Amino acid sequence: MQAEIITIGTELLLGQIVDTNAAYLAKELAAIGFNVFRSTTIGDNQDRIANAVRRALNDCDIVITSGGIGPTVDDKTREAVAAATDRELVFDQSLLDDIKTFFEKRGFALGENNPRQAFIPSQAIPVRNPVGTAPGFIVEHENRYVISLPGVPRELYYLMEHTVLPFIHREFGLETVIKMRVLRTAGAGESNIDRLIADLEESDNPTVGLLAYPGAVDIRIAAKAKTVDKAQALLEKMETELRERLG
């Protein structure tokens, strides 16, 4: 199963904000068995976002977008996803009620631009946001899904945990467990380690990857199985082989 992550915001391209959402989403998707086919960053341009979503839908089962669903005129994700999936935007009164309640609980009045956030692509599934003012949405398009979430990390994490991951589990009937382990080395050098374990790096399950730092190299092992015990057994076997070769 393939997934693409699209993070949206000109501030990301300008380096004004560090994109931590892509790393978080990649980790969460990998943990449930999805291969992240590609990660893309797009500025606040409707046509470019729509083109990125179309391309992603050609390659992937799930496309997750982050950002661009705020109340301002440069928030273009809603319009872009609607265009990419041949839909119109429709108003959802219940979403506006949620936003209004969020403001009222904090002693604020609803802004004149906030009603924009209650528009989502037609027939989309609303992703209600109790920790912010930007509701997300899920669009099914030709048996594939576009899941649009806010760019604020705290809100994105909450919606992934409480709504999106349970949705993905239900829709895809996921039964795979993925366990990961990291072995830390020092002083050996990445190229030397690669020479000693190159064949293991070609393994499909468990997978083995290297991540180099100054003076140190991490070896990441990830195993898939139907149960935690079986995944753990695969990890143990690979770790034993790695330790025997590297000492």
Structure characterization notes:
The chain is an alpha/beta fold and 247 residues long. The chain contains eight helices and eleven strands. The strands form three sheets. A six-stranded mixed sheet has the order 2-1-3-8-7-6, sandwiched between helices. The chain has a three-stranded antiparallel sheet with strand order 9-11-10. Strands 4-5 form a two-stranded antiparallel ribbon. Strand 7 (136-141) and strand 8 (144-149) form a beta hairpin. Helix 2 runs parallel beside helix 6 and helix 3 (46-59) packs across helix 4. The longest helix is centred in the middle third of the chain and has 20 residues, at 153-172. It is elongated, with a radius of gyration of 21 Å. The mean pLDDT is 92.
SSE inventory with pairings:
Elements: E1 2-8, H1 10-13, H2 21-31, E2 35-42, H3 46-59, E3 62-66, H4 77-84, E4 89-91, H5 93-105, E5 119-121, E6 125-127, E7 136-141, E8 144-149, H6 153-172, E9 177-186, H7 190-197, E10 207-213, E11 216-225, H8 228-246
Parallel strand pairs: 1-2, 1-3, 3-8
Antiparallel strand pairs: 4-5, 6-7, 7-8, 9-11, 10-11
Helix pairs in contact: 2-6, 3-4
Give the beta-strand count.
Answer: 11
Report the mean per-residue pLDDT as an integer.
Answer: 92
Widest sheet, order of strands: 2-1-3-8-7-6
Main beta-sheet annotation: 6 strands, mixed
Helix count equals 8
How far apart the termini lie comes to 36 Å
Helix proportion range: 25-40%
What are the secondary-structure elements, in order, as H or E? Answer: EHHEHEHEHEEEEHEHEEH
Proportion of strand residues: 25-35%
Structural class, by secondary structure, is alpha/beta
Radius of gyration: 21 Å
